[in-house]
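Task: sequence design from structure.
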């Protein structure tokens, strides 16, 4: 098993190359998730939802992505 850090705004490339994703906002990790959660658009943090919404090439089927409550 190899571990590496990839920094990118291209979520399609990240989803292709990674098994787990950490989303950062203002230098702080706000969410860590398996890539499957991102692909199925099950995110917890509003900033992650915003990144998915702004990635027009990645978001295929859902015009609106909502962050889910961790409760």
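Answer:
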């Amino acid at each position: 098993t190899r571990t590496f850090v990839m920094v990118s705004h291209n979520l399609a490339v990240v989803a292709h190359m990674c098994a787990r994703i950490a989303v950062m906002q203002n230098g702080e990790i706000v969410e860590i998730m398996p890539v499957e959660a991102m692909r199925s658009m099950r995110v917890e943090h509003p900033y992650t939802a915003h990144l998915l919404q702004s990635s027009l090439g990645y978001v295929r089927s859902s015009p609106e992505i909502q962050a889910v409550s961790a409760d």
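The radius of gyration is 12 Å.
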